[in-house]
Amino acid sequence: MEAATTQSPLRAGELEIRRDEFIAIAGDRPLNLTARELDLLTALVERNGRIVSHEELYRTVWGEHYRKSDRSVDVYIGKLRQKLEDALPGRRLIHTHFGFGYRFQAEPRGRVLSTSR
Q: Rounded to whole angstroms, how far apart are CA atoms 92 and 112?
């Protein structure tokens, strides 16, 4: 009989991804993510601080060759941003690098972006 292997949670700032349980927790709130959203968030967090191209994200999450006309990555990034903002107001975790891709950057626990200009 094989022993069950468990993956340790993936943590970045106030975000925790429990891959074995197929859930992500932001702050103290579980995020209501689809399987695809969870895969995309996991791919970004695994590359925390690094710009990840549309091509790499698409290949990693969808498992297919990326077509420049396909906006799936952008659509799912928008959904993830909204869900993260709902759970962690004032935090900006997914950054756009136009012409390159996206970067997940965890913020220190409790840090909120200033709303003043």
A: 9
